[in-house]
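Q: Got a minute? One more chain.
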Amino acid sequence: MAKNPIREKLEKAIIEGNVPQVVMQLLTLALEMKVSDIHIEPRKYTVLNRFRVDGTLQEIIEYPSSIHSAIISRIKILSNLKIDEQRKPQDGRLQMMTETRQSIELRVSTLPTIHGEKVCMRLQDKNKSIPTLEQLGIMGNNYRFLEKTLKSPNGIFLVSGPTGSGKTTTLYSALNIINKPTENIMTIEDPVEYEMEGLSQSQVQPEIGYDFASGLRTALRQDPDIIMVGEIRDQETIEIAIKAALTGHMVLSTIHTNSAAATFTRIIDMGIKPYKITASLRTIEAQRLVKRLCKHCKEAYKPIGPILEDLQKEMLRVHPTHDFQRELLNDVTLYRPIGCDECQGKGYSGRCGVYEVLMLTREIEQLVLQSRGETEIEDIAVSQGMVTILQDSYIKALYGDTSIEEVIRITGGGH
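A: Always. Here it is, folded:
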């Protein structure tokens, strides 16, 4: 495989001790590799640089500890952080033009460790377009349920999933559908990840007391129709969101839970009464990201044993109204990663989403009011047309979008 010219420049800059060039080439390489996060980690004798690519960390290069403090100072200067403060964490933002004349923006976080300051930088691509729900991989009943939700004049729509699972992107895809000149749409974010015409977007500043709760409270005084809040983290924020929904507003936000059904338990744990949840909550969408198989080298094969049995058993639970080519179950074919020059030998290229969308029906509302368990709520939702993340993952494996190994990694494969 041919040597990457940017990596060669990075190695040359490290050898020469050219600190500005080390930082420049590191960021240029990150942009070229489409990474989400850059990690600069001091070890005992060297400093390790790792990139998170398609959700997985991979080692990129090491440099000697002797130039580490100069590199940290360079990053701090570019991020408007205090270069003489090394005892406590700092957060900042970095904007610059790479050597390839591409604009790059990063969120920067520093952390003191026993071997020096560690830096993590999250790339923010301001130029990327907002995908449609179909482009995200939301299909069938998942798409129909979301479409119905976005036509509601009021209520709360929550997107659930772990950090880095694309929740904000999903919210913006939804906002793109309902963004009309007749609607006053406001967003309260940390940070503003996409800039969209027609929206009033605001970024919280917790250090001066401007957090999600105070931002949401202020937004309600701005005659809004629709409010998007970056995250529901505490009782105060969810209480204000409920009040907004009950007074005729539509509220979109994210929450950290393991599944759509688990969201009810999470909100109740925040101190919210079940009757308030059923009165205000419309829909919960949960999601994960799986690695997408490289279309140039993926290989078809016929699964056998427990994997095949688990897949067929789970797919029999999929509601008949969901758009799915059921004939694929008659002679199951799956696909595995091989590796080629196109995917740098990884077998995967990019990621795709897997989803479940739970709409509150009368039956589910009754279960919530009776404080019934997550499993019972999920079973009723599936019987009413919800496609679970596990089922959606299996469907994407059958379509050749991802591998069964990825399905098991993300969902546990039903066990």
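A: The CA atoms of residues 367 and 376 lie 8 Å apart.
Q: Perfect, thanks.
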